Amino acid sequence: MLARGMPGCPRPDPVAGYDDWYTLVGCPNLDFCPYCIEDVFERTIYRNGFRRAVPRSLNTKVQCAFSTPWIRLAYILTLQQRKPDLILMRDLAEIEQTSEPCPGSVESIRSWYGLRDPEGYFVRDFHVCYNDVRKIERLLPTLNGLFTRLPTRASYEKRKCALRTEGNRFSLYLDKILDMHDRAVATRKLPDSMSLINLVERKLRIRECERDNMLLGGLWHFNPSMPDFTVCEDCYEEIVEPEARKNSDIALRFNRTVQPVYGEGIGTSCQLYSRRMRKVFRTAIKEDDIKYLGRKAKERRDAELRLQERYRDVLRKARRLEERSGGSEDEERRLEREMEKISGEWKDMWE
Ligand SMILES: [Zn+2]
Ligand SMILES: [Zn+2]
Ligand SMILES: [Zn+2]
């Protein structure tokens, strides 16, 4: 939903070495890359709200704010509601500065918020940070009070934030949340939280996708004649199962229950969490081309194994260097760059 016709940002990860950033006037904590300014804002009434950012050290890593889903959402709502300025983005910048940041997937102690069902019981194992609650309430005011603070004792346990933006569940949850808001606006009634609660409870029953983490001895959905293409329960339910229900031959060939993979070498990871592979899968379904899927899956798996081996090798060298503690700084930096290069190739070409 957040991609809706808007160009992707070429600087989605924090990166050093550029001095061409822009910022939103009055919000120095938001940086925008020149591509997003040019592609998204250039011929809009909002362009005047941006100016060049004050130069800083070229060693500082900077991330383009327009690559984050919240800022994108703020802009989509700005357009939908024909706001005269970028007040929603400013509000998000302000929230970011005045609330503890979302801990994301780092297990943290927070004053957590949760969802209550109509009987008043909290949905179990669902914890949202206050920063995200504030953003939702600011952007989607009909949802004020939807998330309520969990009893104090819940705050002393380390949790991950359920609305962390990394991972695929975020956009599922956010779509549902937007839906609730739209309905509440259209019907002028209080939002109905049941559809979100049902989705959350369904998702919490299965393990979340571990993405490219290599697991040993895991259980997977796969097509026995294409064992390279392993899919986790989470992605199976989201992507493969709906196609199986539509009787797609390719989807029906996957085992319906999770099973172990034999001869998995250094490990197995989910092959269907990335946007790229989901696109490959959809194309294969649409054209009913299982060979294409098999070829793409094999290419990816080969690249994954090759890059993993290389990465581990560099990591081993770096560790050895550390142990000797006499290694030159140049060598350390070279290894660090090598690791970044491997991760870059994975992300840009194969993931
Ligand atoms: Zn950008
Ligand atoms: Zn959060
Ligand atoms: Zn997955």
Question: What do these coordinates show?
Answer:
- The protein has helices at residues 34-41, 69-80, 87-98, 130-139, 169-187, 194-204, 233-245, 249-252, 275-286, 290-324, 329-350, and strands spanning 22-24, 27-32, 50-52, 113-115, 147-149, 219-223, 226-231, 259-260.
- Strand 1 (22-24) and strand 2 form a beta hairpin.
- It is globular, with a radius of gyration of 23 Å.
- The protein has three domains: 1-96, no CATH class; 99-205, no CATH class; 219-350, no CATH class.
- With 351 residues, it is mainly alpha-helical.
- The protein has eleven helices and eight strands.
- Helix 9 packs antiparallel against helix 10 and helix 10 packs antiparallel against helix 11 (329-350).
- A three-stranded antiparallel β-sheet has the order 2-1-3.
- The chain binds zinc ion (ZN) (3 copies).
